[in-house]
Every structure is written in C-alpha cells, then in structure tokens.
Amino acid sequence: MSLAGRSLELFFIDGKPDGMLTAEVFNWTGHVLRIPRTLIKKGLDRSETNQTGVYVLLGQTEDGPLAYVGEAEDMRTRLRQHVSGKDWWDTAVLITTTGDMLHKAHVKYLESRLVEIARSVGNTPQENASTPPRSSLSEAAVANMESFLDTLNMVLPAIRVDMFLEKARPAKPAATEPTQQHTTFQMQTPKHGVKASAELVNGELIVKSGSIGRKDFAKNSNATYEKLHADLITNGTLAVENNNTVFTKDYAFSSPSAASAVLNGRSSNGRQDWREKQSGLKYVEWEAAQILEDTLQ
C-alpha cells in the first residue's frame, strides 16, 4: 500500500532556521511551536502558550541529551516555572490545537502516550521518573488522540525532534500474507568480522536482524555516527558479543553510509561498501543502472 503524501507548513517566526517556528499540517487541528530558551520571554508572549497542551523540554547534561514531557492547562505558567526550576533544557516544543480544543483529559492521555513512545524508542533519556497513567477517555476520544499522535509523529522529526521516531522495524509478516519484493544488499569487512545484509524499502536502508558489526568505534571518526552507534548499544538494538555487535532487530537508516558507518565503526562510504546481492554491483553502480534503465524505458 502506498503512503499518502501530507503537506507540512513550517513558519520561521524570526526568519532564522534555529529560531522560533510553528509547524502545521493541512486538515490537522494540531499546532506545534518550538521556542529556543534564549527566546523564551518573547515566545511566552504568544497566545498559544496560554492554551491547554503538551510540551517537550530538550537539552543536554554532562551525561548527554535529556528530555522532559509534560502537560498543562496553562503552558505559559508551567514553562515559567520550568525556567527557574530546570536549568538543563535549551528548547521547548509546545503542542496545542487551533481553537484550543484540547482539555485536561486529552493532554494527560497525550503526555502518557508520548512518554511511553519515547521509552519504547529509547533514543533520548527522560527526566520523567515514570510513565504517567493514561486518562480515562471514551473509545471515540482515544481514536481521535491516536490519530492526532500519528500526524504529530510525522511533524516532530521534521523540526529535528526525533526522540519519538522508531527506527526499529517489525519482523516480516507471516508467509501467508503477500509481500513486496525489495532489493537486498550485502556488506562484509572480514578484518573486523563485519557481515551484514539490508533491504532498500521506501527510501530507507533497513539493516536486517542478525547482521554483525564492529564493537568499537574508531577514534577521531564521525562523531554523529559514533553517538548513534553508542545509542543503539544502549537501547538494545545492538547487542555486544565478544568483539562484535549484532543487530537484535531490523533497523532503518536514512542512507547507505549511515548504515555502513555504524557497522564498520568508522566513517564509511556506504555507496561503495554495500553490494546488491544478485548482481554483486556496488550500491553506486546498482543505482546508476537503475537510472539508466528508467531512461531507456
């Protein structure tokens, strides 16, 4: 089944990519406001901060990234409290609706579900001591909130809030169900015992469960991929076995190089390292062949 496209509108309030911004989706009642802490006074002057909603605080401590998910009937008052009560955060993300249509039970449900999702993903530690209980909602209201969350989980990664983005992929469906044919790639680095397979699905390279990677990340290599490598070990996606790591589940990467870097424990050109299983072509050669084939048709 093909995915329906959605139109996301980002408005950079100050004309700066790292400043305040709003995010909205056509035909979605939700409204997202991102406020850097350096602009918190100006941000709290905006009318949506006085609404009932859910908020996410994001920042860094000496131990790494940290987040806090909360809810309030008056987020302006609550955030003022967090300015004096929490010194580690540097960005606030406020989630409300046009027309202030959320009530206390709605936001308590959303708060609980967001904490639950973030704990399941395991990318970012939370200051929340535990998962708040879900509020009691009607069956129809629960369905509405889950639909709201589906769109929200598309919006947040677009504004670089990826703590709710699940990159692990479920196991393949039962053999009785029809399956799509996907291109399979393989990679081996015998020196470090690396042996992996992956499938290209909807623009993501999904490294398969059981793929073997390098345990230690090379010094002075790519810091972004080194952090991702460490995070995947921490959240259990990678299990350490002797001098290697093993993927415990299928995991989606946004690029061939990101996947090969995590597996090889160093910066790596995935377009050169991955090979298409049937032809043996390097990824870059396979890609060029696909473009040529489309051109000739």
Describe this structure in words.
It is a single chain. By secondary structure, the protein is an alpha+beta fold. It folds into two domains: 8-158, no CATH class; 183-296, no CATH class. 31% of the residues lie in helices and 28% in strands. The chain contains eight helices and 15 strands. The strands form three sheets. The chain has a six-stranded antiparallel β-sheet. Strands 7-14-10-9-8-15 form a six-stranded antiparallel β-sheet. A hairpin with a 2-residue loop joins strand 4 and strand 5 (64-72). It is elongated.
Summarize the topology.
Layout: E1 8-12, E2 21-25, E3 30-36, H1 40-43, E4 53-61, E5 64-72, H2 75-85, E6 89-97, H3 104-121, H4 139-158, E7 168-169, E8 183-189, E9 194-201, E10 204-207, E11 212-214, H5 223-234, E12 238-241, E13 244-247, E14 250-253, H6 256-264, H7 270-273, E15 275-276, H8 283-296
Antiparallel strand pairs: 1-2, 2-3, 3-6, 4-5, 4-6, 7-14, 8-9, 8-15, 9-10, 10-14, 11-13, 12-13
Concise synopsis of the structure shown:
By secondary structure, the chain is α+β, with helices and mostly antiparallel strands.
Order of secondary-structure elements:
EEEHEEHEHHEEEEEHEEEHHEH
Largest sheet descriptor: 6 strands, antiparallel
Average pLDDT works out at 89
From the N-terminal CA to the C-terminal CA, the straight-line distance is: 24 Å
Question: Main sheet: which strands, in order across?
Answer: 1-2-3-6-4-5
Oligomer: single chain
Morphology call: elongated
Number of strands: 15
The helix count comes to 8
Helix proportion range: 25-40%
Q: DSSP strand (E) fraction? A: 25-35%
Structural class: alpha+beta
> Radius of gyration over alpha carbons?
22 Å
Low-pLDDT regions: 174-179
| Structural domains: how many | 2
